[in-house]
Amino acid sequence: SPSQGPMMLNMTEKGKAGKIRLPKEIFRSLSSQTERVVVTVLNIQQLGMFEELNQTGQVLDNTVVGITVGEMSISGLQDPVQLTFAHRQLAHGITPQCVFWDPTKGMAGGWSSSGCVTQTEDKGTVCSCDHLTFFTLLLNPALDKSTAQALMAVATAGCGVAMAFSIFTIAFCIFLRRRFRSKETLCTNLGLHMNLVGSLLLLNLAFLLNSGLSGGTQPATCKVLGGLTHYYLLCCFTWMALEGCHLYLLFIKVLGSYIHHYLVKLCLMGWGFPILVVGVAGVIGSYGEYCIQTTDHQVTVHLCWITSKYLLVHYITNCRYFGLIFLFNTVVFVLVTQKSCCPQGTGRGQGKRKTWKVAPGAMGLFCLLGATWALAFLTHSTSSVFMLFLFTILNSLQRIFIFIWLVTLYYPKMMDKTTTVS
């Protein structure tokens, strides 16, 4: 009741007991003098409940606390409910977040922090929320402010360098296509490379516009910018897949038949298929403002991207799509490298010498097929600061690798007029 507290405290393990404070505002609105206050403590690991799809944070001690007063649905409290979650000092790079279970979020429900304020103390975290429901403390991996700013600076500088080398690469490919216009296979190869590098160039441009304009853009503009960024990313992945398919046809299957308008059909696939994916994602409202928070709950980056509510779209259209592409390209790369290093009829000594000649070209080819993007799978937890910086730097250097690879591969043939370009 409002004037009388519990007669006996139910203590758990020493030092790990949490606290709940209910404001008087709740009881003043009740019609009867006495109501039942029910506090439910659940171990979600044993029950298999409250599992959010693709959840990045970890629930503290796998514990969820539910609070009900009477049979009313209580929300919009001026004086918030306070829950104190007791815990030891958290590891570096982990930030606690007070959340509640929102059954309307996503496809099957998820954790939401709306209406809750997180306050970290020495021996625990205090959650102040304006409603009653099921609460928990989510331990999210996060970056500190200085690291996040440094990472954004590296990404921005890397985009500038990548755009410059993308322009150099496209110009070099155009020059080679004019020089060897009679060599149809060579022109097709260069056309593929130009489209891949062009999609990377547009992706870098979209990222720079995104990080520079999204903080103060209108919701409609942000949705368009988020959709464009997603489209160019999918174009990059698709063109990497087409590079692998083309490599398979040239070295493994070795087609004897002529494919009419081959490069045109590849362009329709490379630039057309992502339009369908982005169109479906746009219809369901996946794009909008996406914020990146630091450990002190400050928003360091505003991006126009797939919103947190539709993270499933990101995992399906980006992570799983690229995973399948990279798996296929890796198999093709291994087969092509094996065939190049160990051709039939080559002696053991000649095979070793040929391996050393093929190795530099193979490394450039692996970058062309998306090896640097595979590091994204190791940066799922942002507590891995080293992997985040490595992914950002190497992904920016991908354009430099491709440019050097093309120059090393084609420049000697261009200078030697008597060489037959294979």
TrEMBL record:
GO terms for cellular component: plasma membrane. The chain crosses the membrane at residues 150-176, 188-209, 229-251, 263-284, 321-337, 358-379, 385-407. Residues 151-410 form the G-protein coupled receptors family 2 profile domain. Residues 1-145 form the GAIN-B domain. GO terms for biological process: adenylate cyclase-activating G protein-coupled receptor signaling pathway; cell surface receptor signaling pathway. It is found in: Cell membrane. Keywords: Cell membrane, Disulfide bond, G-protein coupled receptor, Glycoprotein, Membrane, Receptor, Signal, Transducer, Transmembrane, Transmembrane helix. InterPro entries: GAIN_B, GAIN_dom_sf, GPCR_2-like_7TM, GPCR_2_secretin-like, GPR1/GPR3/GPR5, GPS. The keyword Membrane applies. Its main location: membrane. It is a multi-pass membrane protein. One of its GO terms (molecular function) is G protein-coupled receptor activity. Pfam families: 7tm_2, GPS. This is AGRG3 protein. It comes from Columbina picui (Picui ground-dove).
